[in-house]
Hints:
Elements: E1 3-13, E2 19-24, E3 29-31, E4 34-36, H1 43-55, E5 58-69, E6 77-89, H2 99-103, E7 106-111, H3 113-130, E8 137-141, E9 144-148, E10 154-158
Parallel strand pairs: 1-6
Antiparallel strand pairs: 1-4, 2-3, 2-7, 5-6, 8-9, 9-10
Amino acid sequence: xxxxxxxxxxxxxxxxxxxxxxxxxxxxxxxxxxxxxxxxxxxxxxxxxxxxxxxxxxxxxxxxxxxxxxxxxxxxxxxxxxxxxxxxxxxxxxxxxxxxxxxxxxxxxxxxxxxxxxxxxxxxxxxxxxxxxxxxxxxxxxxxxxxxxxxxxxxxxxxx
Length: 160
């Protein structure tokens, strides 16, 4: 039976419209800031705590984006991530990473949203090539990008 793990994540924007991404040096990937929901904690409390810990930010939640569910066979884990949009409130502080996150080389990066999507697609493409699958294909038409991830996932983004 897989272990169920629930997490809260955010597309967190600053006053300049840049979004927070966590770069994980040890794994060579990027992820949205956020993490596990602790016992006795609701998703909103977890989201606020994780944004303080990872991005050094107090936040205002502005919307619900959705949920992802994965099955990680190697870890016998089934993570559910609840994603929200949020804005920074006040002055950005300092991240308070756990010892494991520091060892893994977590670093917050602030990027334009289209750069964040590009980083995620490149990471997915590298993983697909390393695992013997076809790479992610990106089609750009003006301000529109489409990422084809081999039929299982397609990301369509139109930038204003």
